[in-house]
Amino acid sequence: MSASLALATFNFRPALPFAPPPSSASAPRSGRRTMAGGVRSEMKLYKGTHMREQRLAEMIEKKVAEATQVCGEDETSDECKVAWDEVEEVSQAKADLRLKIHQLQQDPLEHFCQENPETDECRIYED
Amino acid sequence: MAVSTVYTVQSLNSTCSISTPSKPFSQKHILFFTTTKRALTRSCRQISCSAEDKTVVIGLAADSGCGKSTFMRRLTSVFGGAAEPPRGGNPDSNTLISDTTTVICLDDYHSLDRTGRKEKGVTALDPKANDFDLMYEQVKALKDGAAVDKPIYNHVSGLLDPPELIKPPKILVIEGLHPMYDERVRHLLDFSIYLDISNEVKFAWKIQRDMAERGHSLESIKASIEARKPDFDAYIDPQKQYADAVIEVLPTQLIPDDNEGKVLRVRLIMKEGVKFFNPVYLFDEGSTIEWIPCGRKLTCSYPGIKFSYGPDTYYGHEVSVLEMDGQFDRLDELIYVESHLSNLSTKFYGEVTQQMLKHSDFPGSNNGTGLFQTIVGLKIRDLFEQIVVSRTAAALEAAKA
């Protein structure tokens, strides 16, 4: 096994045009996981997952502002530490979601959407 | 083997007479019947079932949520199979399931949701925000082979969602902030690990994690760590004294004044005298070694690799400490290092390297974090196999006695 295999990077672009009809559950929505290392293919998300990402991003911004304000009043208060704990919680949640999507290529709504392709959440998010 | 009073040869061979004994049922009747081949199969099936029914429970303490994904995925990969969220359930479930292993996030045992914690003025780190009675009850039930309806804490909404059914797996991993906090839960653990990240490294990692997010800045990241520190030091940190293995992550000593946190010094602190756990060692067990593998046989690039190993005490316990400072940047460095370590519990030469390569895109794959997480995974597999063997043997002994 060559040493370079472990550390090679390469780009993978799926050849198929995107957005298969909901009925063909077998058609892959995204490039499957590539070999070790490497830039992942652009993975199309379900709308619901994209919305979760957006929501978490907004919450981070909002909660950082809240914490800055609350701690400005009293740095040693319980309110202050709870506020920063909330920031930590949503920051980690966003990072976990990002990891799932981009590194593991798993959309959390994958199974739900295979069962319920007609729901709004399960529309493919197009940029 | 004592001969008990069974009356006819026929009853020895017939299996139906066990079910309705005219005399008061006693252990010795079973004993006698186990000598026949048919009955032996049936009672052996029962014995092996009960050994397999008991789940092996591993605790992992770590800050920042569940989805210590990297560690968990390395661990489940050692056992074989990929860990995935439960199919068809709540998409915000924190649980991971593979063929052999189920990983439960202890945040699911929050007794207070985000609003509740805000009202009471407690962080998630505070024991008051967690239901340890439920945690104990359910971990015990799973360990004894019963399925449970476990709550789900939704990190997106901050609410407690309806429960999901968890079936007892072969290996149950409970990960989160407080796996070793409650004494009853602690005693259910067959093995426990504490991931101890130093402040400098924590800061560097959180910068990497958060800087791209709108709203975050160096100040906010720093403030968040500082604000959580008192609760962390009071409730989470003390658990490390109970851990069978501690993975300590520190800044490197190979680069003066390095503050990027990219090159790491990682220490694997292994408790001595833990049942079914034989610490990894370098060259000569129990001695003190410093080893720089780079030299004539192995060329490393800057800053190189440095190992040390030796006995020590940790919170009053005898431990062995294996330490790696630096990075791998070639496959042959990894194999060279693996070939010099002992008691790795690998099933074949090169298994550690193979596991590292399998997940070479994961963070820590080129340094001690990935290496020691992989090794701990192999140790847990070894522990699991030994426990199963010992339980089966014990059950057979009990049947003979």
UniProtKB/TrEMBL annotation, chain A:
It comes from the Eukaryota. The keyword Lipid metabolism does not apply. Residues 56-127 form the CP12 domain. Disulfide bonds join C71-C80, C113-C122. Signal peptide: none annotated. Coiled coil: none annotated. Keywords: Disulfide bond. Residues 14-36 are annotated as: Disordered. This is Calvin cycle protein CP12-3, chloroplastic-like. It comes from Salvia divinorum.
UniProtKB/TrEMBL annotation, chain B:
It is found in: Plastid, Chloroplast. PANTHER family: URIDINE KINASE (PTHR10285). Belongs to the phosphoribulokinase family. This is Phosphoribulokinase. InterPro entries: P-loop_NTPase (IPR027417), PRK (IPR006082), PRK/URK (IPR006083). NCBIfam families: PRK07429.1. It catalyses: D-ribulose 5-phosphate + ATP = D-ribulose 1,5-bisphosphate + ADP + H(+). One of its GO terms (molecular function) is phosphoribulokinase activity. SUPFAM superfamilies: P-loop containing nucleoside triphosphate hydrolases. It comes from Salvia divinorum. One of its GO terms (biological process) is reductive pentose-phosphate cycle. The keyword Plastid applies. Its EC number is 2.7.1.19.
